Amino acid sequence: MKVRHALIIGFGTTLLAVLSVVLIAFMVLSQLSSSWTEMSTMIAGRHQVMLRSALRLGLATEHFNNFVREGGDEGERFTAEIERLASHLAAYRGLGQLDEAESTLLDSVDRYLKLYREDMTRVVALRASGADTASIEAALQGEHDKLLALSLRKLTDINTRRTDAATAELTRQLEVSRIGLLIAAALASAGVFTAGVLASRSIVRHDRARDTAFTALQFEIEERSKAEAELEGYRDHLEQLVEARTMELLEANRTAAAASRAKSEFLANMSHEIRTPLNAIVGLTHLLRRRSHDQEQLDKLGKIGDAARHLLSVISNILDFSKIEADKLVLEAQPVDLRVLGASVVSLLSEQARDKGLELQIDTPPLPMLSGDRTRLTQAFLNLAGNAIKFTRQGSVRLRIIQEDENNDGLLLRFEVCDTGAGITAEALAELFEPFRQADSSTTRTHGGTGLGLAITRRLARLMGGDANGESSPGRGSRFWFTARLPRLAEADISPVSTPTDDTAETLLRQHHAHARLLLVEDDMVNQEVARDLIAEIGLQLDVLDNGQQAVERLRDGNPGYALVLMDMQMPVMDGLEATRRIRETHPAETLPIIAMTANAFGEDEARCLAAGMNDFVSKPVDPELLYAALLRWLDRAGETGPA
Fold it and tell me: Are the C-beta atoms of 426 and 389 separated by less than 8 Å?
């Protein structure tokens, strides 16, 4: 009885233990199955969302590019696809809890979606304003479609890694559970056959559950592989779209570069074509004024000269502004004596101020020799001072040069002009430094000008490390200034100042080089006549040829007594650059100076002339004093080295 009870108790205890183990195993497996079912549903849902999101982004990008090129209703299609993409991403957020990386990526996707929509809004506005395709593409600097695609790809990679991790964890837990069930089976077989049978049946059920889970996992993996294959296809399509857009942008850049070159060529040709007749006007006016004694004629010739100089100033302003806008203006480093610079500005404007009855003064404190671009400093200071005289009817114009600061980079100087003119309002002053802007539309009719002077002054000042501005009020005059930072000049670079003399270049040419024989190579008949008279005025002889080929042939077998050659750049048959290169094969620059005298007035034109072997450069319209100074300089040097 006791044995039976013991057996019953032992059997019952063993059965309860086995049943407890089996029950626990069933609960663990049920929990695993439930967790995996929930996880696989979430993973599958997110994979579907990412697949659809990639499809919507590809379609949206295609509609975006079509709208940029063709317009139409592609913009509405783009908006619809973007809204669908946004709804997919909202659904993604609802499929379970997000980790930190997913939240960050989804925030990035939302931001890039917003920027992509703003791109479309900008394109719609540009197309509504009539902009062409190249301008629209140039205005789109971001690559938000690529960033969206990259963020979606990262989300897909996160889901892939999550699937792999879940699979590994489920396999591990199933193996642990299986070991537990095997232990339960061993206990049951050691106890009672019934418990063993029950345990075996439990193991069978567990194996079936495991097989079912593995089958579900295998199905999920196959579905994921299909989704990845489809997504890869969409990736390839997106990469093709990106490549096509990149090629379009490269073509647009090439088109813009070609347009820039065409603009530069047009400006150069315009400068040459306008300066050539201006040279005749200025030269003939100068000669007539020298030879006329009739006061009425002199007055009219003076007006012609003023008009020519004004036209030249307008052309120079337009070309300077174009070079600044194209970042082609290069500042030179030269010794700058600010007292001499200020005196030069006053000298250039004194007659104009005297004619209007204005008092013109300049205040320049003692300053050391500095390094800078004398021409551009003078140009900027003249712009401010010339405007002050132009718009002041009575009173005074005062110029000042003030040192504001000094550091290792040099001295910060303020070039300031104060006047007693009518003044302008704050609203008009705010626009004066913009290109082609003047205080009102009547200014051009009353005083002339292009509205570029102050804009050029500000850009020159910024190139020199400063800025430009002004202040004014109606009835109280104006004060305009620009600043520039100029480095100190080393003592070794300061040349001794030569003692000035009363002899002009014209006088010295008459005294030391009378009857010297020059050669002019020029194709324009009127400019030939101007040059003949200018040279004859100082007692020199001049032979004239029509093109560079004639000059090469004339100088091929030696130098028939020429002390110097004046060479135009643009000529038929052979231009001046090629002619100079050929002449230099037999005549060095030290023995036969060649001076460019051309209407090509750009800095790069001067560089090309010097590179071809010319000694100096004089631009048209020719200033007689500058021409005589260049002739004196090179005739003196040629005389020191001896005849060719």
Answer: no
Contact call for residues 285 and 304 (beta carbons, < 8 A): yes
Quick: pLDDT tens for 336-348.
999 999 998 998 8
| Strand 396-407 versus strand 410-419 pairing type | antiparallel
pLDDT in tens, 386-445: 989 988 999 999 999 999 998 988 899 999 999 999 888 888 887 788 775 555 544 444
Q: b/e for 339-349, b at 16 or more Cβ within 10 A?
A: eebbeebbeeb
Neighbours of 580 (CB within 10 A): 27
- Other beta carbons within 10 angstroms of residue 410's beta carbon come to 18
Distances (CA, A) of 539 to 214, 284, 535: 111, 18, 7
DSSP secondary structure string for all residues of 568-637: -SS-SSS-HHHHHHHHTTTS-TTTS-EEEEES--SHHHHHHHHHHT-SEEEESSPPHHHHHHHHHHHHHH
Pairing of strands 594-598, 616-619: parallel
* 479: CB partners within 8 A, 6+ apart: 416, 417, 418, 419, 470, 471, 472
Return the number of other C-beta atoms located less than 10 Å from residue 519's C-beta: 24
Other residues' Cβ atoms within 10 Å of the Cβ of residue 626:
12
Nearest CA among 35, 83, 61 for reference residue 245: 61
Q: Which two tokens stand for residue 524?
A: 């324009």
